[in-house]
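Obj.: predict assembly geometry.
Materials: sequence records (below).
Method: joint structure prediction, all chains together.
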Amino acid sequence: MTEPLRIGIAGLGTVGASVFGILADRGAEFADRLGRSMVVTSVCARDRSRDRGIDLSGAVWFDDPVALARSGDIDVFVELMGGEDGHAKLSVEAALRAGRHVVTANKALLATHGTALARLAEDHGVALNFEAAVAGVIPIVKTMRECLGANRIRHVYGIMNGTCNYILTEMEREKREFAAVLSDAQDLGYAEADPTFDVGGFDTAHKLAILTSLAFGTEVSFEDVYIEGIEKITQQDLNAAAELGFRIKLLGVALDTGNGIEQRVHPTMVPIDSPIADVDGVFNAVAISGDHMGDLMLEGRGAGAGPTASAVIADLFDVAAGHIVPAFGRPASKLAAYRQARMRAHEGGYYVALELYDRPGAVAAIAKRMAEQGISLESIIQKPRMLPHRQERVEKSDTMPVVLITHDTLEQAVREALDAIEVDGHISSSPRMIRIEKLQVGTGK
Amino acid sequence: MTEPLRIGIAGLGTVGASVFGILADRGAEFADRLGRSMVVTSVCARDRSRDRGIDLSGAVWFDDPVALARSGDIDVFVELMGGEDGHAKLSVEAALRAGRHVVTANKALLATHGTALARLAEDHGVALNFEAAVAGVIPIVKTMRECLGANRIRHVYGIMNGTCNYILTEMEREKREFAAVLSDAQDLGYAEADPTFDVGGFDTAHKLAILTSLAFGTEVSFEDVYIEGIEKITQQDLNAAAELGFRIKLLGVALDTGNGIEQRVHPTMVPIDSPIADVDGVFNAVAISGDHMGDLMLEGRGAGAGPTASAVIADLFDVAAGHIVPAFGRPASKLAAYRQARMRAHEGGYYVALELYDRPGAVAAIAKRMAEQGISLESIIQKPRMLPHRQERVEKSDTMPVVLITHDTLEQAVREALDAIEVDGHISSSPRMIRIEKLQVGTGK
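Observations (raw structure tokens):
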């Protein structure tokens, strides 16, 4: 039997404690399977006295993660502290430079420094594994790194933030507005005290930036992700979506347009009979399409101690077995420079919600502005009855909600039409626009 | 750059030709990605003169696959001939004994000789890869081998035969009976001239036997799979299922009962709002549940030249990169002996369709037999109106269809009740029974 794999864990929150606990409980089974034992020799966390329900007495305690990363007593450094800079970045860099393999769940770190860290790992001949950074237990990183190499990937998209998906699911089921559901989610521990990072789409964007590199072989480019969160989604939108045969999901989407890469995170109307529409609550799903493979969709728990620890341990298994794969599936030197497609050129259908003054010619003026931009409309819905929760206000008000669904068109055209409509002064507040994706997978139709 | 990986392909049907073609077209890209080129040095097929749309002039032609398997000019033997014995078995054994890696899409071979072949591969220090053998492009073999090691798997189940899934989908959509849809599927090339292997459930059983070993670390035991096909499914069953909120799918299911393994393939009623119910047409899906990971479901194309070739090439990438993983995810010597759970002990709900003579006391007699076995009924449906296509016959006949849905009960109990009902003589033909699975994944509820 080979020498044991010596592991140092930095960060002992629920995930770190779970990884530690599973390795302690099932060490013998794992050694049987791998032909090699894995031992946590060292740990590091902020608070030494906290009871985490695990026995740390056999591990050396470090107060400084960088010191742990450089320790001669570890072969692999497991970074579970989080954060795109600070301790996480310094210690991961230190570990790689010291020739230690790195396993991390840190999507922020990978999204902002992924290319540089991949180079560093390769320069030192060590692994940089991050299955747990994207979509929890879903083996999307390994799938994209190792399973789809025969294909030119067309697109990858997914629901990658459980907080947003939980909120949207609850808003739809319970007919409640965003702020109320968010507040409950915070009480339940499904949302942070400061929810911006999740509900604003930034977490999804981090994960998307990582998948984009894996999909298209480009350098990681988080700063080029177009990001919209779910904060402005209302019951009116959800009701209109349902009436039109759609559901609203926060999707991260990356496409090879043939003329650069498009990366975007935004609320999206997806057909209610599409598999992605059925991914509810805290589940995540990622769909990939490629030329030979066709469509593939993976669905599972995107967060939580157990699923995340399971992904971290899968990465440790690979290190123990000596399977060192380049971080983004090909040598860092072969990653192409990122070339951004113009977001405004995005093609697809659009949902537009307007609060229109109830006066003669208003609808005609709207229709004219759309026509000027060459946009053809699939439907116009102008019936307050479909929006029961708003009826009271509508009756008292001099405006009424109008919903437009466009056929496929360029985003540039929609934006220009909406700008013109706003200038015309027939609407009482800024238009709301939600992109429609008819992407399908697995329907076999 | 490392020496090229020299590949020999035995079997040049649509999959073999596609693998050859993709390697020829994208060889330079693959070499960039892998840091190593892959070259098809030798091929073998039955008919040398056939035009396959690929240029074989650079490859040495073999008439005998065993001779190709032993050739000193290959590092990896790709077996795409199929069949559980004969050429496929002989050549794969010869390749492994000669120290060649093996990549195969042959589920029959793996299901019947998997354990022995895994040992042979290990004894010779080579890979035995078979991603394409189960569920086409879905990376289920790699996922189970390499990604879920932290977990004790509870169950794995899936839709793994596109022919059956296409037929059931069409029967439901088009309201046509099995024989008519099968005949069309044969014309379309979705079903073989002799369809028994697919529609009888044997192909699914082969794939299930492989997944069982990966899931539970047991020796492959195809002979212990309980198998029922879809031949007897009628419109009556589909209509009753729809009325009750179910859809009928041919599932392969493997469970660790805690008292042995249960492997079974049979038509199954699944809740119409479950993700597996939405997997239509030629798509496949596999769901896995484990203690830390929770539920995971993978969905994609289960057959076809492109998806299958994509999976074969993924296996070749692993060989080229030197990633040699034990065939069933752990050393063959560590595979436990297979211990069969008693199928008749299966717990769950049951759908039972009876053709009952329309005479006083008949329903009461049925209910009594169920009660004797301690079976409680969730519903009894006795209304010919729900079965419009049968009305004519019902009106002319002295029997009427009755559908029972049981609560969770033991299969043993259902079978004994049905035996007693048959002896009582109130029914005009043998009862039909379909198992109900309420297994859920991804609903987040």
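Conclusions so far: Chain A is about 35% helix and 25% strand.
To do: check interface contacts against the pulldown list.
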